[in-house]
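Technical note accompanying the year-one report. For the benefit of new consortium partners, we illustrate the data format agreed upon in the data management plan: each record pairs a sequence with a structure-token string. No post-processing was applied to the example shown here.
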Amino acid sequence: MSFAGADYDVAEHTAPRMSARNVLDIHAGLHRMFARISPLHRAMFIEYALEDLRAGNPEWVASHLHPATSSADLDPWLDSLAFDLFGATTFQVTAEMIDLARNLSVTTPDLADLVPEDLPEDSGFMWLDEPVERPSVEDKPGMAVMVMQAVSWATIPQMEVRIGEGGPIARVPAVRIREWGWNDTPNSEPRPLHLMGQSTNPLTRNVHTPLTELHLVHMIWILMGMEIVSTEPVRADRAAMRRAPNLRHHDVRVVKLRRTRPRPDADRPVVHREIDWTCTWLVRAHHRHAHRQDHRAVGPYKRSGPCEVCGDATSFIGAYIKGPDGLPLRAADLLVKLAR
């Protein structure tokens, strides 16, 4: 969204350090702006939507302005801005988690494919303690890349997508994602967050998103479901809760590396095959045939449907880190030390 009376400068639009209380305030304020939208903001966001309609092809517009179906009726899209934020769980992602996700996303395959199991919640508002670069096709040579400071999302039951070029139309579940930038310039609106971009992404394999910043968001979501990461809620104080009566949830889930804890059976002798391990590595979530299951539980585990190829029963194994505790985590040619 363009600013009124201000040039966007990345260096001047980076948020200060936020507490969990501040993050809840920002989430609540953003929802309040759309729930009680002023004529000025309504006109600004409608113009933003119309710019998308004028610039994009029909399928691209359907993705960006879901659930609106035409320029004559943008009310469903405007309503969704408030609705998605109302029920969203509030997350605050620490800088160390963003750095880890950035390193791991370099060589992790298929981050362009989103699947339902990767989402930490059906809807969420995720504040990023360290802003993330958001490249755009509109960037000119030598221009500083804009950065996003927050991401919000909400799942939707289904949307129509075309499978492959010229392929059939299918109805699949999807997630509506919005990216937010920081703006604290007094003479420009909206603030402190402005809408940088949005898309509705199918939650199915083999349908890719070309937005590279969402690969990093996807990696953060994967890490949030793993044992090495803590997402324990921080309860806001009474003053913050009084300022956020319009939200369904009043906890802020701070996403950070979990501090190491000794295992209960640490003194128990273990007989195992000697392997000269040098590092640990990320294993993505996957489905496994039930008759091949090891008796030990590995990662989040649950029964799944039959195999699409052979029809045998399968189970879903959540993402996890493989290898002994205490060794560096391999990400491309970089080893990341996770022990705290």
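Partners are asked to follow this layout when depositing records. The longest helix spans residues 39-55.
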